[in-house]
Design goal:
115 residues, 2 helices, single chain, mainly alpha
Length: 115
């Protein structure tokens, strides 16, 4: 007859390997989900940064039209702020692409980073 004290190590020997394998699978799944969420967040960021860049260029044109039409002070102000906005949009894209590369998330859609 098996004693109670001998049964505990037997249970550990039978239960620990499946638990460890499940943890490894879960870790891989979590890493894959994190990568997909990172790519999704990067795509949203690229979209909104691009939209901000387009708006900055449109305001640059609007400021030029204001300047030409005789409202020079408002035109200069609009052009200045449009250039600041365009600079921020470009710099944010550069910074985010660099950070994403550092963490291992592709900076461009479809890009595969070397392991």
């Amino acid at each position: 007859m098996i004693r109670k004290n001998a049964l505990i190590p037997l249970l550990f020997a039978l239960l620990i390997p499946p638990i460890v394998l499940a943890q490894e699978e879960a870790a891989g799944l979590i890493q894959e989900i994190g990568l997909k969420l990172g790519i999704l967040a990067a795509s949203f960021f690229r979209f909104f940064a691009g939209l901000g860049g387009i708006l900055a260029v449109l305001f640059l044109v609007l400021g030029g039209i204001q300047y030409i039409m005789g409202n020079a002070e408002a035109g200069k102000k609009t052009i200045s702020w449009a250039l600041i906005g365009l600079t921020i949009a470009i710099l944010s894209l550069i910074i985010v692409s660099t950070v994403l590369e550092g963490v291992g998330i592709p900076a461009q859609p479809g890009e595969v980073l070397p392991s």
